[in-house]
Amino acid sequence: MSQTLYLKYRPQKISELDLVSAREMLEKVLKGKSLPHAWLFSGPRGTGKTSAARILAKEVNGNDKDLNLEIEVGTCTDVIEIDAASNRGIDEIRELRDKIKLAPMRAKYKVYIVDEVHMLTTEAANALLKTLEEPPAHAIFVLCTTDPEKLPETVISRCTRVQFKRPTIAEIVAKLKIVAKGEQESIRVEELEMIAKAARGSFRDAIKILEQVILSDKPVKEVLGLLEFAEPRTLIELIKTNETKKALEFINNFVAEGVAPREFIERAVEELREQLLETMDKSLLPLIEGLERAYERTKTSAVPQLPLEIFVIENSKHETLNPKQEDPKPVKHGSGKGKFKLEDVQVRWADVLKTVRPHNHSVEALLRSTRPTDYDGDTLTLEVFYKFHKDKLETDKCRQIVGLAVGEVFGTDPARLILQLGQRLQPAKEEVVADSVDEDLVAAAAEIFKVEAV
């Protein structure tokens, strides 16, 4: 495969544009009596804006065969593509204004395609506006953006706007069928629909995923990570049936298999959205909103799956995860003092977490956001990266669970536990402290540890 499939199957004519609405709009405007000198193509990434801009350059220049070929390979001197993300200053726009006065070398019109135009500085955008207000007769501008709201209204008002809407699943599947047929690959419609959903509104991403499937020669589900052990519908059903412990185990299993919690949440929200639109069941709304909150928290959580685990417990109906478990009784300490050191507990920290898990799954999850900093066989010092986590681990119940686990691993009396608040593993945009934690998060934590939220 000498050329990537996205470039190989890139639309080259208006009739080949994948978005029906954009195709019809372009055809309508080009059939008009006057030709706009400024265009604005706006819409999500991967929907064909730049491809449409090149096609427009061909159309206004009469679809000359040799010129079209140069435009397709990017060697046409009269079609200039500018990346505003890296050429965003006023000096670059001034240079463009000076060069635009020069007549085209071969084409009828000189076409300037400005990609990500919203990235221009305010001064550069104002300079561009002056050019749009008084353009040379031989110049046409095509501004492409994923974020038109960031453009000055004065720039938008000077342009003929073509909206590239998010494509439907059917439109993406239709494109994938063309690519699969061209590559002589037999892929079931159900699998193409899986790819289309995973692409999240991007023709480009969909074709890239299809290319991975073809090159890897693996099932679509495996390439997408959509294996049975990570089906969002399974977790949703466990929550609905109040099988909280099984739901937490389900999360732990798919994380252990390498499935990213954020990607899983995205698919879970999409699954619930489809159920909501199909059934109009309002009881699904709290689940969707809860998953959206969990998705945001994964950006700053030291333990990637913890927000999802909290979501599960938030939606449990007061199920006792360990109904037969009694509060640990006070125990003696000291039998291992001086026999071990920090390196010992660092090496066997995974064993400690494994030992904690059967006693309390949530305590194990919180321990994953800590780091051992000292151990002498009797006293274990942990650095905790969030005050909220530290407060919960300092409860007597949690201290005893951790201490018993350490003692079991090292064959000593239960360890004494000292907790120290340290710096986060990954800097976050906002400091999360006990006073700023959402009330629902505090309530969820209170449910985990069976304590009263204050």
TrEMBL record:
Keywords: ATP-binding, DNA replication, DNA-directed DNA polymerase, Metal-binding, Nucleotide-binding, Nucleotidyltransferase, Transferase, Zinc
GO molecular function term, any single one: DNA-directed DNA polymerase activity
Matches recorded under Pfam families: DNA_pol3_delta2, DNAX_ATPase_lid, DnaX_C
Superkingdom classification of source: Bacteria
SUPFAM superfamilies in alphabetical order: P-loop containing nucleoside triphosphate hydrolases
GO cellular component: DNA polymerase III complex
Domain AAA+ ATPase: 35-168
Family annotation (InterPro entries): AAA+_ATPase, ClpA/B, DNA_pol_III_sug/sutau_N, DNA_Rep/Repair_Clamp_Loader, DnaX-like_C, HLD_clamp_pol_III_gamma_tau, P-loop_NTPase
CDD domains on file: AAA (cd00009)
BP terms from Gene Ontology: DNA-templated DNA replication
EC number: 2.7.7.7
Catalytic activity: DNA(n) + a 2'-deoxyribonucleoside 5'-triphosphate = DNA(n+1) + diphosphate
SMART domains (alphabetical): AAA (SM00382)
Subunit field text: DNA polymerase III contains a core (composed of alpha, epsilon and theta chains) that associates with a tau subunit. This core dimerizes to form the POLIII' complex. PolIII' associates with the gamma complex (composed of gamma, delta, delta', psi and chi chains) and with the beta chain to form the complete DNA polymerase III complex.
Function: DNA polymerase III is a complex, multichain enzyme responsible for most of the replicative synthesis in bacteria. This DNA polymerase also exhibits 3' to 5' exonuclease activity.
Protein family (similarity comment): Belongs to the DnaX/STICHEL family.
Record-given protein name: DNA polymerase III subunit gamma/tau
UniProt lineage: Bacteria, Candidatus Amesiibacteriota
